[in-house]
Each structure stands twice: as C-alpha cells, then as structure tokens.
Amino acid sequence: MNNTFVVLFIAIATLFNGSVAQTRHVVGDSIGWTIPSGGAATYTTWASNKTFTIGDTLVFNFANGQHDVAKVTKSDFDACNGGSAIFTITTSPAIVTLNETGEQYYICAFTGHCSAGQKLTIKVTQKASTNAPSLAPHLSPSASPSPKTSPVAAPAPAPQHRSAISPSAKVPESAPAPAPFTGPVTYTVGDTIGWTIPTNGASVYASWASAKNFKVGDILVFNYQINTHNVEEVTKENYDSCSSVSPIAAYNSAPPVRVTLNKSGPHYFICGYTGHCSAGQKLAINVTGTTTTTTTTATSPSSTATPSGSTTPSSPSPSGEGGASAPPQNSGAASLGSLGLFAMLVSVVAAFY
C-alpha cells in the first residue's frame, strides 16, 4: 500500500510541476514593434524588467508591409544584418515561442530600421521547478513498523453513507478550467491593400469588415501614403453623404494611424480628401461588448498623435502609431488549470489510500 501511495504521489508531483503557467510578453507594450523615438534603449529598457523562460511567447505588433521580425545571430544583430536570418515573420501579430535557453536576438530587417533602434535582445532561462506540497511524511522502507513491535492501530471509522456527510465535508471537486486568454486585437484595415481608393469601390472595405468581430479595446491600423490620404471618423449622416464637415476626429499625421475602439456601437471612417470617400474609401464597423482582458493604456506626449481640428472628440480617443492603447496585456500568465488537476488527483489518492 505504501509503495502504491508513493507512485501516485510522484505522478501528482509530475503533473503539477508540468502545469506551470506560461507568460505572454507583448514586445514594447503599447508602442508595439516599430522604430522607437528613444532609439535602441527603448527595447533594452523594456526587456530589462522581464523574466523570459522556456515556453513563454513574444508578441510583436506592427503595421503589415512596414516592418517584420527577423531572428538573427549575435554578429548579425550587432551589424543589423537581416539577410541571413534564422527566420523572418512578415505578418502581424508575430508570435514567437521561446523554446531554447540563452541569448536571443531580433531585429526589423527593413532597411535602416534596426540601426534606428528597432532591435531586441533577451535572455531565456529554464523555468524554476515547482515543488508539489507534501501530502504525508516520507516513510522509508526501513522505518516501517514491525508487526511485533508496532502499536495497535485504532480501528478505521465505518464508511458513512453519502447522505450522512455534512455539507461542509463535501468531496473535493476539480475547479473549472479558466477561460482561454483573449485580449485586444489589432486589425490592419484592408489588410495588404491598406487604406486607399479601392479598385472595386466601397464593397472592398465592407467585405473586409464583415468577417471581423470588433470589441471595445481593439485597435484599427490605417496604412496609407502620407500626404495622399487621411483618416476621419464621422457621423452616420456624414458617412452616407461623404462629407468631412465637422468630423468627430481627423488624423493627418504620418501613417500608420492607430485608432483604439473605446466605445461600443457603430463607427464610421472616411478619407477626407476630395472624391476619395465617394470612390469607396470608407469603412463602417460595429463594436460590441468589451475584451476579456483589461488593458492598461500607456501613452506619452511625445508619441501620441493628436487629431487635427479645433474640437476635441469625447470618444473614441485614437492615437498615432506610438500612442495606441496597449495590445494584449503584457506578461499575463495564462493559467493551464493546474490547480483543478491537482485537486482532482489529490482526491483520487486520498480515496485510494
């Protein structure tokens, strides 16, 4: 019986130890993966207070077509050379699982981006072992009591019928598994075509939006050619008439423009350049509910784009590329339900023993 208990205890400890939560790190937090205004020190500072372990993930948020993520060697990192990368990811969000220990190096392979500071180095370590709680004193085979000298054991209490067990003595049940991790989603408007006059008219952006589920906290990224287009959020009436008079918010800054959806309900966007909206450069979306994970908004005066015009919109509070609300919450441990598994196995061992 003792040997059986020891085997079951080891199985519980192994399963419990393998159920440690992993951590999701959003690179750069709210600024995402871009050319930082503070140079390479920006990502060095970001990584300095993080602990990266095997199984964790890095999430790189960037504007498609304007950045990428290349994992490189130390020498290529120092030389900002992305030509012989270990791998390159070109679509945002780029999710990298950390599956080896030691120093790791990432750069943007677009010309001039790495030398301008878009580079990251981290150190990955093994996850610290988690010791399962002791369920009973350790008994070595030599310490087992002899039949001749051991004291007479007290008789075991008669088993109770389930109906006789008090409510406070209910059999432990496994805790429900937590809901899957979901956080704010970054949508690149139009995907690869960006924000432009579409060849097939307004149906292009209507089709793009129809397959999306926009929630409060999500982010729209508008990619366009500077001084050729802009982004204006307008009322339903102005959207239908393609009028840019008194927009709710207007963005004329250098792209990409990032707009955080901070209010549920319909939202309407057009290009304010003459003739662009009537040619199909317009987007209508419906925002519902809230995202599962609370997101911390981190902005700085130097990186937040301010809508042009004399009126300050009460909602939403869009921003430029550097000042968007934080994408998926940084360093959020996604629990794998280890407590529920542990409770269930403990109850099995207790019943058996």
UniProtKB/TrEMBL annotation:
CDD domains: Stellacyanin
Bias kind Low complexity: ranges: 132-155, 292-328
Highest taxon of the lineage: Eukaryota
Gene3D superfamilies: Cupredoxins - blue copper proteins
GO biological processes: nodulation
Stretches for region Disordered: 132-177, 292-331
Residue stretches making up the Phytocyanin domain: 23-126, 185-289
GO cellular component: endomembrane system; plasma membrane
Pfam families registered for this protein in UniProt: Cu_bind_like (PF02298)
Location of this chain's protein in the cell: Endomembrane system
GO molecular function: electron transfer activity; metal ion binding
UniProt keywords, alphabetically: Copper, Disulfide bond, Electron transport, Glycoprotein, Membrane, Metal-binding, Nodulation, Signal, Transport
Family matches, as InterPro entries: Cupredoxin, Phytocyanin-like, Phytocyanin_dom
Cleaved signal peptide residues: 1-21
Family of this protein: Belongs to the early nodulin-like (ENODL) family.
Annotated function: May act as a carbohydrate transporter.
Name of this chain's protein: Phytocyanin domain-containing protein
